[in-house]
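Components:
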Amino acid sequence: MRSFEFPIEAGHIQEFKRAVGDLDASFDPDAAAPPTFMVAADRYDPDYDRRLRSDRSWPPVAPESGSGFHAGMVFEYHRHPRAGEVLTATVADGEEWFKQGRRGGQLRFREIVTTFVDADGQLCVTARWINVRADNEVRE
Amino acid sequence: MRPEVGARHRQVVAEGLTRTQLVAYAGASGDFHPFHHDEIYATTHGFDQLFAHGMLTMGITGEALVAVFGPEGLDRYGADFLKPVWPGDTLTTELVVAAVHDDGSVDVEISTTDQHGTQVLRGTATGRLAGD
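Structure:
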């Protein structure tokens, strides 16, 4: 488990809105975060490895490493954060489950759960990143 | 969109997705995985070309949700990424009301398809419709 601060910046929201198709999004100092904006907290995660880092070679995650693929995502909104807030993100391992693959073999699904709380300690958003990879290990 | 089971909303959410938009999303999200901006890396690792982040497809689909729920109307939004989305793809999202709850919130089923009719994202969302 790890925690870091995620400042919700109006310019970042504008940039994100344009990137997801609202091409003419204007700067709004009081903007509400778009539905999937919490994923951009990764920018502030010191352990995030999908970026250039001085302490690692690039690229850090190759398919042959068996790290799997991003299969899905779920956001639960307890309150929609707005520009100007600073949230605390806490990342933890979630549930793990297995399914039979269509081509035989077993698929392992694993959740990474990030909770975002505001300055008053109130839960704003829960995000569940679901990763999948072929599982070749024999389980008990 | 009316709060009635079976009510539909259909919206073209991306027309001819560009590589530039993928790069813009990498910058905005912070996800610089080379599959999504480095053509040589993607083809070296078995893909025909680079492809969109699943989260970009989910974010683009989210524009249709904002259109019907407003910017703060969602309680939940979940999606599965079914197929890769490629540069040049045109994406259409369809929302269908699956349930209406006593508190006025609705459940919608989400489907985003490409220009060939292939479903690339499947999901569900719950919230209160804008103006309701």
